[in-house]
Structures are given as structure tokens and as C-alpha cells.
Amino acid sequence: MNNRLFCTILVVAICTMSIAHVAVAQETPFVITGYVSYVNGTACDDPGVTVTNTGTGKRWPAENYSVSNYYRLVLAKGTDLDAGAILKFEVTSPDGSQSKIVESSIAQVEIKEGGRFEYNISLALPSQQTWYFTDNTASAPIYAGADYDKIMTKGTEGGMGTDMSLIHGKRTWLYSDPIADGDVTFPAGAWNVSYWVKTVRDDEHGKSVTTKLHGIDSTGAELSGSPYAEETHDLTSEAKTVETVTTASLNTVAFTIPAGGRLAIELIWDADAQSDLVLYCNPKGEHASQVTSPTSDPSNLMPDLVIANQSVVWVDRLSRTFNVTYTVKNDGNGIASASKTNISVLNSNFEYSVPALSPGETYTNTVGPFDATFDVSNHYYVTIAICADYYKTVTESDEANNCATDGIGIPYLNISIESVDWVELNKTYNISYEVLNSGGAASTNVTRAYVYIDGNTNASVTDEVGVMPKPPIDNPTGVTGLFGPFTMTGTSDTLSVCVEWEEGKNCVEEVFGYQATSVFDTGTGTYPGISGTHNGTLIPDEDIVVNRLYTYACAGTGGHTEYVRIWNESENVDGQGNWSGYPSDYRNVTISPALTLLQGHTYNYTIKTGSYPQIVHAKSKSVTGGTITCTEFTDTNGKRYTNWIPAIRLFYDEG
């Protein structure tokens, strides 16, 4: 192929940005590139390339260039496609004289590598037929004398990177699929068989592989005159190097495959070879192994009606009405008589007439408006099924490819309060929230979240919520955010947090507060903060009763106390507590038994912390309720300090 593009460089820059309050997932690109050539191998400049995800119906035109046969398409992983998605490539020359439609499955390795690169496509003349090698085992009818029986699929390439082994002296038969549903006569002409192989041992250079063209009947018996042609190819590449085998003289007279029979390709590896030959179905970065018929129509001219394209568009989103546009195409080589297309919407069926279509001809129609009814049971999404030749009045070469699906939906958002946390105990707090889209469409960028406090009709604050893509069924997509800080004027606040989008509004309510009591409170600390073991003393400036310890955590962390002990042996005072883990009230630890700490008396403490608690960086400090002193702090790395005080609050909780 003459690739005349001087250089193409794709640079994908992934930037990580910190966006206040809202975390938005970034889409990862999936890049498809390649070159298009004519039947004779010359470059096809300015090709038309359109790619369709057959599972979703989404369709994209690829970039191309008038001075080059190069094409490129950039899609989004997870949004436009995933591993296993089947892409249909529709490729045409500028004058429309040559074309090809190829369907190919996306492999997991391609998802990992970020694309399919150098996916080169050779055009065909309108009447040519192509079958692609696969490693799938063939079922009857098959030839009894074959060592291996595999399938060739018509119009659909096999999985990327699949291969099979051929033992020396053995033969693989690859059979056309589907089986002939009528007598099919192929004209005299040159057949093109092109496939990829690799020898395993170094001494296999010069060994040969033989290609034969056969026909079998419905019992698997070889037809009279078969094999119709054969050719032997001597391998020239070094061992362990992938080499293409392309037939040059596989010419046949006209022959007929009867109903129930199959066309077959036989491959024979040299009996003098010493090891296996690897046969590739679809090597990475190369065209698929394939066989193409001569440039003439077979004699049984049969139509094949398919839904070539479809779209669903809102007429009035608020009143839930939409139109459907669809295109019926005759993909076969015979004339299709008039037929009916059926559209199914919410268990209601609508029929529309389609005129007779010649091979390659299309008929496009827009119908509606239809009414959409959304509820939780269908995830606010309506699926539309479109089927050509609904009553099977047209005899087709393929009766299983008449239908396509599409759909339309709306977003549906819910908001939840994930946590309410003190910034400064009993004074200021933050509200963490999450918004989930469980609907059937992406939300727009006008979505907003609000918080109302103590019944105020005006929102205390608003926060823009990022776009959330359409989620998969039963797996909502979401974003999180943070409101605050807010100042508590009494002992509790009633919080109402709402999300409002173009389709509606949802709210959730919670009461957050505290019960005033005598406390021993260091207040918030500062950075740096690290977990470890604190030992020291505290002296209350009034009598207090305590049974709970609260730990101030560094923002965005799970800082907490894992173990606490407060004691005075001479007074027989000794209380201890252990952390109960996530996701309970993990910043509070219960001390048992409850302790009465007397004014002016000295009490020892040992506090073991986890994650990233806040620290008061001082040797000794006067705090709310008394004085606290650090004797020694040993951090999780074994370093010791005498001026690190845990940021804590001791209080009594009657609950």
C-alpha cells in the first residue's frame, strides 16, 4: 500500500485539575487509525470512513485527508465503546466505485493500549464477497478427511490477535458461514486468498504451505471437480517472523455450491517441516486473513434488508414526545419486494411501508411523535426496536439481521448527605454530599445543588454539579461535593440539601447538633499530622464527667483514635476505650467506665491514633477545660517528639 501521509502524531495530554467541591471523571480516548487502498493495492486518497457501534447505534465519521489515504477517529472509552463492542466500518472510495463494510470486535488488549492503530482496509468491487478466518470450530457439514475444521465468517472479522497451530503434514479446512441456502454459482475468475503465518523453528526456511479451494455438499462430501484450484507458497521470512501468504494464480472455472453445502479453503503445512506453523486469523496491526470471490455476482441473487441507520430525537422534551428516523437498506444482491418495517415503543407496535429496493438502495423515513413514559422500573429510558421485513415476506440471504435498537431517556438525580463534620467543634461544620444519576440520559451542566438551614426559603449556598453521563442500567454515576463551613448558633441545625436539574428536584433532610456539657477540648490542631502513640497528662480546671473522646481529623482523611486510656492510680481512676472501626461513628470512642476528673488533679493519658489526626504542636497548652501536656509522642515511623499534643475533645454523652 502506498501510504502518502508524511507523519501523524497524536498527543493525548491528561491534565489533573483540582476543582473545588466537585470531582468529575475525565474521559479516556480510544484512537482508531489506518490507511485505505483500492482493490489493486494503490492508495485511495480522501476515503469516506464511517464507524458505527452496532450495540448502541452510535455513528461517527472519521477524519480523512484529500492528499492521503489515511483516516483517524477518536472515541471515548466507557462512553462510546468498551471491550467486546462490535464496530462496523463502512468505507467508500471518493467516486463510490469501490467500497467495503467490515464488522470487527474490540479486544480487551486494545482497550488497554488506548486504540486500534494501523487498521488498514482494502476496498472491494461491489459484487465481491469476502469471508474471514476464525479459530471457531465448524459444525456439520464438514469434510471427513480434514485434521482441523474451522469457520470463515462472511463480512465479520475474527477477534484481534487470534491464531491456531497447524502440525506439519496436517491440513486445516475453513468453511464458509453461513451455509448456502440455495444453489450458488460462482463465475470463472481469480480468487484471492490472503493469510498470515509464522514458523516456529529456525530450520523451516523454504518450507511450503499449500492453499486449495474446495466445495462440499450438505453431507460433507467433496463436490465433483473440487478442488477447483490450488497453489503452493514457499516461505521466505526468517523463523518466528510473521509472513503474509497471498495467492497469485488461484483461478477457477465456474462452479456451483448446492443448497446446504459450503465453500471451503484447505491449508496444508509441509510434511517435511519439523514443527508447527502458526496461522493467524487477525494479527495485530494487519488486515484479517481472508478469501475473496471473483469480481462477479453469484447466480442466486438474494436481497438482505437491514436497518442501516437510526436516530431518536426529542420533539418536545417537557411533554415527552419524540420522533424516530430510520434507514432500511438492501445489503444483498437481489431485488427486495415491498415490505413492512415495525417500530416497537413501550410494548406498542407501529407499522410502516417500505417500497421495493434494488441491491444497495436505501429508504429513509421519519415517524412520530411517540409518547415516552418514564419511571424507576425502566430507569427513565425508553428502548425502541426497529425491524425491517417484520412479517418475513421477503426471502433474504440472512434472516437474522433485520433489527436494530435505539432509545431515549432523561436524567434522574438523587442527593444524599454523606456526612456532617465539625470544623470547629460545636461552632462550625461542613456538609459532604453525593449526587447520583440513575436516569437514562446525561445531566446537563446547569444542574445545581442547594442547602437550606433551619427552614430558610433562600438557599444558604449553591454549588454547581458537573455533568454526569448516562449510567449503565443499575449502576448510577455520581459526583461528590462539600458545603460549608456553616456556623451553628444554637445546639442543632435542620439541614435540607437539594439537587435541581432540568427535569425536577430532589431533597433530603437531616438534623445535626450537640448537647452542651462540660468538656475538655484542645480545639483544632494544625499540620503536619500523623498517627502514633501519645503519652502525657491533663489537669482539669473544673470537675467534669467524661465517657467519650472525639478526635479532630485532617480534612479529607479518616483520622481517628484507635485506643485511649485515662488514669490516676492514687485515686483508683482508670477508663479505657477502643475504636469500633469504619463506617460507624469512627471519630468518637467510648470510654468505660465513665470517669469523674477533679479540678486541679493530674491524670495520665495514652492515646493511639490512626490515619491522619490533627496535632497541637506544643509542649503544654491551656485549653477549654484545663491544661494538657505532652510527655512523649512516638509516630508511626518510630520518631519521638515532646511537643505533639493530640487534638481531642473529652465530653459526656448520655446516649
Annotation keywords:
seven-stranded antiparallel sheet; eleven-stranded mixed sheet; 655 residues; single chain; mainly beta
Short account of what is shown:
The chain is 1% helix and 49% strand. The protein has one helix and 51 strands. The protein starts with 27 loop residues before the first strand and ends with a strand.
Describe the SSE topology.
Elements: E1 28-37, E2 48-53, E3 59-61, E4 63-64, E5 70-77, E6 86-92, E7 99-105, H1 108-113, E8 115-116, E9 121-122, E10 130-137, E11 148-154, E12 163-166, E13 171-177, E14 184-186, E15 189-190, E16 192-199, E17 208-216, E18 229-234, E19 243-246, E20 251-252, E21 255-257, E22 262-269, E23 277-280, E24 290-292, E25 305-316, E26 321-330, E27 339-345, E28 348-354, E29 362-371, E30 381-387, E31 403-409, E32 413-424, E33 428-437, E34 448-453, E35 461-464, E36 477-487, E37 492-501, E38 504-513, E39 520-521, E40 532-540, E41 544-551, E42 560-568, E43 573-578, E44 588-597, E45 603-610, E46 615-616, E47 620-623, E48 626-635, E49 640-641, E50 645-646, E51 648-651
Parallel strand pairs: 1-8, 1-9, 11-13
Antiparallel strand pairs: 1-5, 2-3, 2-6, 4-5, 6-7, 10-11, 10-24, 12-23, 13-22, 14-21, 15-20, 16-19, 16-23, 16-24, 17-18, 17-22, 25-26, 26-29, 27-28, 27-30, 30-31, 32-33, 33-36, 34-35, 34-37, 37-38, 39-51, 40-45, 40-48, 41-44, 41-51, 42-43, 42-45, 46-50, 47-48, 48-49
